[in-house]
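Protocol step 4 of 5: obtain the predicted structure for the target chain.
Materials: sequence only (see below). No template structures provided, no constraints applied. The aim of this step is simply to have a reference model before the mutagenesis design in step 5. Sequence pasted as it appears in the construct record:
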Amino acid sequence: MSRVKMTGQLRRFLFFPQVLLILLVVFNIAIYFINVNAGLLASAGLAIYVVFVAVVYARQRSGITNELVTFATQYGQIQRQLMMDLSLPYAITDDHGRLLWFNDAFADLTGKSRKNFYKSIASIFNGLSPDKFPARDQEADYEIIYNKRDYRIQIKSVVLDSLIDDSGLIDRETREKSSYIYAFLLYDDTELNEYIQKYEDETMVCGMIYLDNYDEALESVEEVRRSLLTALIDRKINKYFQDLDGIVKKYEKDKYIVLMRSSTLNELKSMKFNILEDVKTVNIGNDMAVTLSIGIGANNGSYNRNADCARMAIDLALGRGGDQVVLKDGDSITYFGGKSQAVEKSTRVKARVKAHALQEFIESKEKVVVMGHKLLDIDSFGASIGIYRACRTLNKKAYVVIDSPTSSTSPFIQEFEDNPDYDPKMLLNIHDAKEMVDENTLLVVVDTNKPDYTECEELLHQTKTIVVLDHHRQGNNYIRNAVLSYIEPYASSTCEMVAEILQYFAEGVKLKNIEADSLYAGIMVDTDNFMSKTGVRTFEAAAYLRRSGADVTRVRKMFREDLGDYRAKGETFSNAEIYREHFVIAECPSENVESPTIVGSQAANQLLNIKNVRASFVLTSYKNIVYISARAIDEVNVQIIMERLGGGGHLNMAGAQMPRVTVDEAKTRLKNVLDNMLDGGEI
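Step 4 output (structure tokens):
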């Protein structure tokens, strides 16, 4: 104890007699100057004081030190006992995660004994390896499940550098790096999580149910049995949701609203909304199966917001062709179903309403700019020409944005450029289009509803009046600020939709031969020469175009290909592989091919002629982007496959673009998606 040195306030307190001694010596000297005898007397008293203080200090110093050390030891023992008796499990490990010490609560929780137990904490809590420990003087929280209970582990790193340096046991210069210990504190959050889960399960979810083809299905049965069909459908829907503790209310002949808990929604998701298939089993002699579209809003902050999101979701479901569920869960959108072909509407009321609305927008603006998608195809170009003619009929200036013509559109574009009847400035590049578009311009987007797929996305931000005409199914990313959106997935092509619209313009539109050829060519390409996705209205549109001057022979000559394209198709066929027995995957070369993506899509159509092939996928690398053309006849929904890869399209005609990847990487991702969807029963 003699070597123990005091510090801090205790040292200053014990040093006070020495300071007082110095003051007494000074006073004693001063007294000598006043009176020598008095100074001698003071010196004698000072000597007695010095002897007394020295004796007391010498005798009591070790006792004081002993008391201090005893107090510190007892205080440390009290702290240790408090940590030992702490109700929260607490443990300390070294920097490798090996247990150094733990309290009784930790021992009771884990069932471990302190005797010779220096194993890693990862052997108790799986996955809690040292690489997950926090950095210097940091904390980290992890959630684990142990013995069927939920725990939150708080880990605190403690640096021992100063403690080791002060101890004198280890030379500072011999240490290679900082030393750590880690403190672990466990919180049992089981009950809290149960209450949170219960709250989330009880949260209300709003849904809307529409019958896609109510009128068409009723027309396919005898009139006396129509009420029975309606009753069976009502019973099927009501029983399905009531069994899951949901409430269904019918508010129109073909529309329902449903309220349910979030827990019910989770059950529906696990059942993959099999109501879509159940309702198709209702059959009392109707030739057409009834299909549903369901839109659901959940976890959007309020009941009112959930209802709004349900309406947005049902609009999206209908825009994608129906027979599916669209779930808007917070900011995410999930799709279920959508395996059947969209039903063609026999009535043209919608086309007439959209035509009149489009006419009003055209008349209200000074000029109109029409824009398609990147890598312009003939459907996009033909639809643009149709809108151009509608604008010119109303004596409005109109322009078509073309910046990336392909081999399939170049012959048609050349015909317009060489024709003196058309303004040389009719066809604009992107730079001129940016200069042209302003607040008083109507921008018409055709053959796409995705902003990043348009020829020039910047134009969408330069005007507030945007019209969208498209036949592709909507996805999460679509043009949201359109004043008029006419999207019909059942239509064979955008040219078919435009041909119908032109017939309802008030003054009547008279197409020129070259314009009718362009529209007719768009329908031919998107229907694979009227072999795919054709309905009654498709042939009616084609008949209207034939009456307007379209010539089949002239169009066929426009589609003649050069030898390089034929060779590219042949190479595509030669490297095709069959995957999972029913899918063909091939790569289309892009060298020495003017429009490799067009050739790839044509090859994908032809690969469907192979026996037992349910879907074809052709990958084309062009300008650092891998384009995938996906085609099917009627057995597989290639749209939902392409959506997994960031694309979209139709049930039997879809595509995707994958930037900054190789063809082999794109193939691997495509095969992984096919594997997951096949194993999950989604296709």
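Step 4 remarks: Confidence is low (pLDDT under 50) at residues 167-172. The CA atoms of residues 169 and 230 lie 89 Å apart.
Proceed to step 5.
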